[in-house]
Amino acid sequence: MRIGLYTPLAAHFSDIAEVVHVFWPDAQVVPAPQEACELLHLHREADGWAEDCFCMEGERFRWHTRIAGDKWEQKRRRKRGMKQSCYALLRRITGMHPPWGSLTGIRPTRLFYERLSRGDTPAQAEAALARVFDVRPSRAALLRETVETQRGLVTVPEEAVDVYVGIPFCTTRCAYCSFFAEAIGKGRRVAPYLAALFHEAEAVAALIRRAGLRLRALYVGGGTPTALDAGSLAALLARLEALFPDAREWTVEAGRPDTLDEAKLRALRAAPVTRISVNPQTMNDATLRVIGRAHTAEDTRRAFLRARALGFENINMDVIAALPGETEADFARTLARVAALEPDSLTVHTLARKHGSRLNEFGFEPSPAPVAEAMVEAGAEAARALGMRPYYLYRQKYVAGNLENVAYARPGRECLYNIDIMEETTSILACGAGAISKRVFPREARIERAPNVGDVGHYIDRVEEMIARKERLWREYE
């Protein structure tokens, strides 16, 4: 489907296109002249008010927005009014009620917190999201429950900092993945990569001491950290333990069950790791082959039980709803097999068609929206049956059914790092290829970032530059 869009506000073309994709995810939205467009946007401002008018298929909708505050607040209000006007028109034309209404952002919890900061009660904030943004009541209630779970976990001192360590290697690349990662192969680049990574981590530890920061959480992700051989993994963990001994929480993404032999699990157990992930994604072997996972459902079960036997008390499992070809019955079997293992937390992702992924390249279709929604609801029911509560959620572009990703956990088993990165309440010093450091200025509601290069070879060659970027991030904004 091709939709020609005319807007006098060229800077907001992509914002309007985001709203179009809520209703028609595969639509190609292209600029068009006013006299030959399918979707027409008119905008004018006078006396502190903005008027947006959208027209399509003989229908028209007008929206008036009060423009007040400083230039940033004015920009925010202008953008919000424009998007809500477009949404209201397309909702009328299609008759659809998307789960998240007119919201297109990654972090809908921010709006809930915004309402609370204005003095709303949680019940008032929940009702406002449904009334103002047309969020379905079920999603507004999910937001409220998530924010209530975060109470006591999301407030951190300004000097707090998390450390992220990225291992950009995997045994194979999953068909849905677009992250910076490469197949580990024979591991020829592992040693030079770890040497560069250790050097950067040492600089980060020195920066934490020099700036008087307090370490909150350490997260080793990727990629798949356990794609490393047992010796390399043990060396990595030993170095991190020496550099960051004060982490309140330490997570390692041991996501691929086929990488979790007993030697690696013992290396993780010997370190002060407090949380690991064993991620099946699905417990259906046919789907695992389609998405490029080099393990079976039985491999997942054995890896989980092996970890439990060695004493791991906080194990997360990820599943993905709407994988190609899967039915509601397939997903129900996955949830039943996961529930039988009794993990401590469960993250229910919804498949997103990411640019750069093989699923997108070869045109694999996710499950239809009604099926995806039923799967996500089944995931929520399974998590609650295990005594879990939602503790963070986020959304992505091009996600099946315009849905969300939700992490559930038993009380006391929430991942602090996940909350911190999603709510952007804590600064992060990130090491490794493709990692992004960010410094949070809570009193100014501002975030500054320092990204590392994504290519492994470039990272190894330019690690001094990556260190300098982080040094500037703390020095230039003092």
UniProtKB/TrEMBL annotation:
<dbReference type="GO" id="GO:0006779">
    <property type="term" value="P:porphyrin-containing compound biosynthetic process"/>
</dbReference>
<dbReference type="InterPro" id="IPR023995">
    <property type="entry name" value="HemZ"/>
</dbReference>
<dbReference type="InterPro" id="IPR007197">
    <property type="entry name" value="rSAM"/>
</dbReference>
<protein>
    <submittedName>
        <fullName>Coproporphyrinogen dehydrogenase HemZ</fullName>
        <ecNumber>1.3.98.3</ecNumber>
    </submittedName>
</protein>
<dbReference type="InterPro" id="IPR058240">
    <property type="entry name" value="rSAM_sf"/>
</dbReference>
<dbReference type="GO" id="GO:0005737">
    <property type="term" value="C:cytoplasm"/>
</dbReference>
<dbReference type="InterPro" id="IPR006638">
    <property type="entry name" value="Elp3/MiaA/NifB-like_rSAM"/>
</dbReference>
<feature type="domain" description="Radical SAM core">
    <location>
        <begin position="155"/>
        <end position="389"/>
    </location>
</feature>
<dbReference type="InterPro" id="IPR023404">
    <property type="entry name" value="rSAM_horseshoe"/>
</dbReference>
<dbReference type="InterPro" id="IPR034505">
    <property type="entry name" value="Coproporphyrinogen-III_oxidase"/>
</dbReference>
<dbReference type="GO" id="GO:0051539">
    <property type="term" value="F:4 iron, 4 sulfur cluster binding"/>
</dbReference>
<dbReference type="GO" id="GO:0051989">
    <property type="term" value="F:coproporphyrinogen dehydrogenase activity"/>
</dbReference>
<keyword id="KW-0560">Oxidoreductase</keyword>
<dbReference type="Pfam" id="PF04055">
    <property type="entry name" value="Radical_SAM"/>
</dbReference>
